[in-house]
Design a protein that fits this description.
By secondary structure, this protein is an alpha/beta fold. It has helices spanning 3-20, 25-39, 49-63, 68-71, 96-99, 118-136, 142-147, 151-173, and strands spanning 43-45, 90-92, 101-103, 109-111, 184-186. The protein has one domain (3-199). Bound molecules: zinc ion (ZN).
Length: 202
């Protein structure tokens, strides 16, 4: 996804937010709480509409500096984000072995990699180590591209490999995270390799 596409998508989400802005603080907090309840117990795609709804609600509450847990009963098991204090719905990105888990509310690294449960660290680290060289194909310099002889083919193969690795992340690595977090979200796209959510379907 090009930078322009990313900005247009951001603008679209701000359009979606307009209706959410009409809600008062209590309604917002209750709805966040209800959405967290619906998300509990599963591994979720970032592109899933329920995850998108949570993000819209939670980021709106964050902008208003609302403490959701003071206004509504947050489902048990959601720990507070170490950065913003909101109930943590953690996001795993391809940079997880550097950034750890990212907070869907504030976008900050909420659980550093070295503070993750040890049974998650190793599989996540191994997965990220396999993903990094595949992703790097999108960022090859001219010399690397020339060496590959057919860069378009190399890029296409990297995109297909990324799709498989992302599926593997969601189906084999992340289910174990549910022993430690009530729900977890994975980034089901790679904008640099032009991998979109609908490319990643088992
Ligand atoms: Zn946060």
């Amino acid at each position: 996804m090009a930078e322009d596409d990313h900005e247009r998508l951001q603008e679209l989400w701000e359009q979606y937010r307009i209706s959410i802005n009409d809600y008062d603080d209590l309604t917002l907090a209750r709805w966040i709480s209800q959405t967290l309840g619906q998300l509990k117990g599963r591994v979720w795609r970032l592109s899933h509409p329920l995850v998108g709804l949570h993000r819209l609600l939670a980021t709106t509450a964050h902008k208003r500096a609302i403490r959701v847990s003071r206004l509504a009963q947050v489902p048990a098991d959601y720990p507070p984000c170490s950065q913003c204090g909101a109930p943590l719905l953690p996001l795993v990105t391809r940079d997880a072995s550097e950034d750890g888990l990212v907070c869907e509310t504030c976008g900050a690294s909420a659980v550093p990699f070295n503070e993750l449960p040890s049974d998650l660290q190793q599989p996540l680290h191994e997965w990220a180590a396999r993903y990094a060289p595949v992703h790097a194909v999108a960022h090859w310099d001219d010399a690397q591209r020339a060496r590959s002889k057919d860069y378009d083919k190399a890029y296409q193969e990297a995109a297909e490999e990324a799709e498989q690795l992302l599926l593997e992340l969601s189906s084999q690595v992340l289910p174990a995270a549910l022993d430690h977090f009530p729900a977890i979200v994975w980034e089901d796209h790679d904008e640099c390799l032009d991998v979109r959510p609908d490319d990643i379907i088992p």
